[in-house]
Amino acid sequence: MGAVERIRSTRLDAALALALTLAGLAQLVVVPIAGPATGVLYVLGSTLPLAWRRTFPVESALVSSAFWLVPLEGYPVLGFVVVVLQFFALGDRGRPRLAVGLTTAWAATASAVGTLLGPELPVAAVGAVLVVVAPVLAGRLVRHLRGQNEALAALTDQLREERLRAEEAAVGAERARIAQELHDVVGHELTLIAIQAEAASQALRLRPDLAAEPVETIRSTAHRALAEVRGVVDLLAPGRDGHAVGGVVELAGRARAAGVPNALTVTGTPGSEQSAAGLAVHRVVQECLTNAARHAPGEHVAIGVDWGPTEVAVTARNARPGRGPVHDGRGLTGIRHRAELLGGTYAVDATDGGFELRVTLPVVRAPGSDRVPA
After folding, report:
1. pLDDT digit string, tens, across residues 171-209
2. Inter-CA distances, 111 with 61, 84, 117, Å
3. Which of 35, 275, 290, 365 is least surrounded, with the fewest CB atoms within 10 Å of its CB?
4. CA–CA gap between residue 335 and residue 143 (Å, rounded)
5. Is the pTM higher than 0.90?
6. What is the pLDDT of residues 134-152, one digit of tens each?
7. Are 138 and 94 in contact (CB under 8 A)?
8. CB 67 within 8 A of CB 57
9. How far apart, in whole angstroms, are the C-alpha atoms of residue 64 and residue 217?
10. In a 10 Å sphere around its CB, with 0-12 CB exposed, 13-18 middle and 19+ buried, how is residue 190 labelled?
11. For 120-154, b where at least 16 C-beta lie within 10 A, e where not — what string?
């Protein structure tokens, strides 16, 4: 720790105090302002406290102004510079506010009294008061502006953190969306492949001549799964609208051919701008067929898609072999999330021997296109 730090000053203020003190002492030699001892005492007492103007602003201002009551025959030429620097620091750094006010009042009084005791005219007392009060007010103003800047900087940092958290949340949502898309697509196609693989295995054991058809189905399903995965990648790329709306008919047909008996009924016609709802309907139907194949193999699935002017409703009904409540797995959870994301509804009803799913999704139509075909 250096000498400046030990006396709890700063290098700049210590240098200023030393330089102005030496200048005041030099002036005493050329132009005395009082007797030698009194002049030296005044210069040292009123100028050296400048070294602590920022570390002890109230105390240094009180000590410095106390020497202004010493009667003089003149004033140090650079004395006004000392006063301005000292009391600007008081306004800028001083606290609490009451101490700053009382110190300013004391210094203004001492400045006026010291002026009246000196060779100046009485009217000079007004200027003596202003030379104290004005720097204090300027210091307070600078302090206020600095506080506003610090508050704005803190707000900027807070907004930056909020933006980063929002970006992280968006990334997390996008990851969940990708996982859901892959689950819906790959899970459905792999379920069909598993069904056909089982059929091919049975055929190879009993009637090898009948194994060609399920093997061909496995091959075509695998190629379609690959295309679906590529479609998901394209869907997640910016500017892509997603899966074709009319694909549910083809989807149900493929499932039927793969051994998942189902009947699809579509009423109404979706608008061309309903890509979000159309993709969701496609995924819901896909997941219903996948769930039926997994949990109710061989059971008939009745699926309905009803496009209305404001919403589209999807229902799926099938018998189920088990009893008891239905627990939402990843598939049903994904359907529920899709419905909630689009502002729709989701409900399942599991009874003894039956399962029903109902999903409604809001649709957006272009002005003038609200006619629903019969």
Report:
1. 777 677 777 777 777 777 788 888 888 888 888 888 888
2. 12, 13, 10
3. 35
4. 58
5. no
6. 999 999 999 999 999 999 9
7. no
8. no
9. 99
10. middle
11. beeeebeebbebbbebbeebbeeeeeeeeeeeeee
